[in-house]
Amino acid sequence: KPLNYLLQKDVPFEFTDECEVAFRKIKELLVKAPIIQPPDWNLPFEIMCDAGDYAVGAVAGAREKTEDKTLNEAQVNYATTEKELLAVVFAFEKFRSYIVNSKVIVYTDHAAIKYLLTKKDAKPRLIRWILMLQEFDVEIRDKKGVENVVADHLSRMSHSKGGPPIEDALRDDTLYAVIDKDSWML
User: Fold this and answer.
1) Which element (helix H / strand E) includes 155?
2) What sequence ranges are listed for the domain Reverse transcriptase RNase H-like (predicted)?
3) CA distances in angstroms from 150 to 48, 65, 77, 102, listed in the order given
4) HSE (side-chain half, CA atoms, 13 Å) at 144
5) Cβ atoms of 107 and 143 closer than 8 Å
6) Residues 83-108: pLDDT tens digits?
7) What's the pTM value of the predicted model, to 2 decimals?
């Protein structure tokens, strides 16, 4: 507050003892802030994911970032396996800028996800998600729900209605061309 006062228009600049204390406090907080500590880019990122009935949660280990999002009306009706894969897709979209070109270990309490990534006859929505995940160096590991407490907690939090929904379609810049590049010529 004392430093903000000095920034006001037509206020004489008097750096009081109160200003000095506030300035030292700001310096102390900036020096200790975790945001100035970059991750070790040589180590893999770890993402813990979980899906509840109405929300998904994800935690990226290297950046100590967490994200959670409420499911929309259609997503609430997904099967459990689809919700769990949606949690993984959500995490990769949210943390994309951190995890691109890095090894990523995904911890989930839903073992079927590991096998779903190799399935060839899945629903179109699942195939879109699997294609998106193939651009990453991903390793899926099982983790019991009781051990995956942070992501489990995020997926079970009570969420207010509203806010942007989870985007479960591929972004324009990640769409894949399935046809031959010369197919427009007859």
Assistant:
1) helix 149-156
2) 40-136
3) 8, 11, 24, 22
4) 2
5) yes
6) 888 888 888 888 888 888 888 888 88
7) 0.57
